[in-house]
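re the bet — no i am not wrong, look at it urself. input seq straight from the record:
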Amino acid sequence: MDGITRPLSSEQTDLIAGSPFFSGSAAGDCHAAPCLIIATCRIIRPDDKVIFPMPFYPRTVTAFLASLLLAGCQPASDKTAFVTPAYTLDQLTADLAAEPSATKVLQRWCIGRGLMPPASHVTAQKQPAGKVPSQALDSLHPSAGYDIVVRHVHLMCGPHVVSIATLAYLPEKLTPDMNRQLLLTDQPFGKIVLPLHFERRRLADDSRIPHSTMGETPIEADSPPKQAILINRALLTTSDGQPFAYVEEQYQRVLLNRPIQASSRGAGDRTQN
């Protein structure tokens, strides 16, 4: 059966769109390429007669096309998201290596994977500071009479702990306003010191935590972080090469998740706004 594709007429398009089989949220959620092909094309013979897979009765054709549309556009209902740890961990490692500010990476990563709404920001939930890491003392070389301040935080994307970070920094290398924000706010360190145009120098190769299973691993969309998957240790330096902070970061397993429920909630939020 030789033929070519031509656009549907406006009458035929209205016929399909107005069918009781093609209405409600299913029509609004239709984004897949098969939907577009079926909805916008018809097949005709050289003699310009319309070819359908059955006799051309308007209601029959409408129901047939609508059933194909709905079959190809059903939203996923399974709560379990399947991810490949090796691939996503490689991506996370590459993103962190390419950007001095881990906060920026987490912001993009969390929004892209639905861990928090697009208008949200990464926050730093303060924890007891603890001792100055020995490697910080060796790397920062504080001037006589100056102390190293330790800031221990859980970096949060919405309700998720995505990174556990210990920062040791030299207050004299920062502005008074930066020091005030570090003491009084829940802003991440990287965001506060961004005006310094700092650079990140890794002190050791990234340490990856072995997974219990490899390949495709099911992760519940609402599961809490289970363990660290990546540990970074780095020295932050000013644009002229002066070290001002040492960081240890433990990135959590929840970052490998792509929660389906979060995407569904986002679609609902867009509908309401």
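see?? DSSP finds ten helices and twelve strands in the chain. told u. also Residues 4-72 form one domain. so pay up
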